[in-house]
């Protein structure tokens, strides 16, 4: 059984930084793309950033230049370094991965709350 477990959320002041981590575990043969989505109250879930197994990255315009996604393939882990945080970054952040574990499907983490407030 495959699981994605996130960590690193919390409360931070505007202008501050946080680092999110998401580790995949279970009977995994390979992981293709990994990414982070977020959902603010009353809004739809949106892509924040994703990264391919080869390291190519893609970012939402709202986070370009402030957030950095990276991954450690040996640890099946994806990270999101968030700098210069703004109140509008407040949301539940979800890890997402396209994993082959006998069949290929998309998996989601349980979500971690990020709150940017003074």
Which features does this protein show?
57% strand, globular, four-stranded antiparallel sheet, seven-stranded mixed sheet, 118 residues, mainly beta
Walk me through the topology:
Layout (H helix, E strand, L loop, with lengths): L2 E5 L2 E3 L5 E8 L4 E10 L6 E6 L5 E3 L7 E6 L4 E6 L8 E10 L3 E5 L3 E5 L2
Parallel strand pairs: 2-11
Antiparallel strand pairs: 1-3, 3-8, 4-5, 4-9, 5-6, 7-8, 9-10, 9-11
Shape: globular
What's the order of the H and E elements? EEEEEEEEEEE
Q: Structural class, from helix and strand content? A: mainly beta
**Span of the ends, CA to CA:** 40 Å
Radius of gyration: 14 Å
Low-confidence stretches: none
Task: State the share of residues found in helices, binned by percent.
Answer: under 10%
The total count of helices amounts to: 0
Task: Give the total of beta strands.
Answer: 11
Beta-strand residue percentage = over 45%
């Amino acid at each position: 059984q495959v699981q994605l477990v996130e960590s690193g959320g919390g409360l931070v002041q505007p202008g501050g930084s946080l680092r999110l981590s998401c580790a995949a575990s279970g009977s995994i043969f390979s992981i293709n793309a990994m990414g982070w989505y977020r959902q603010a109250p009353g809004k739809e879930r949106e892509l924040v950033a994703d990264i391919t197994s080869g390291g190519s990255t893609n970012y939402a315009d709202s986070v370009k230049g402030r957030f950095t996604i990276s991954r450690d393939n040996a640890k099946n882990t994806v990270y999101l370094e968030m700098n210069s945080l703004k109140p509008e970054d407040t949301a539940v952040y979800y890890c997402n991965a396209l994993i082959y574990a006998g069949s290929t499907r998309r998996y989601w983490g349980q979500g971690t709350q990020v709150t940017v407030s003074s």
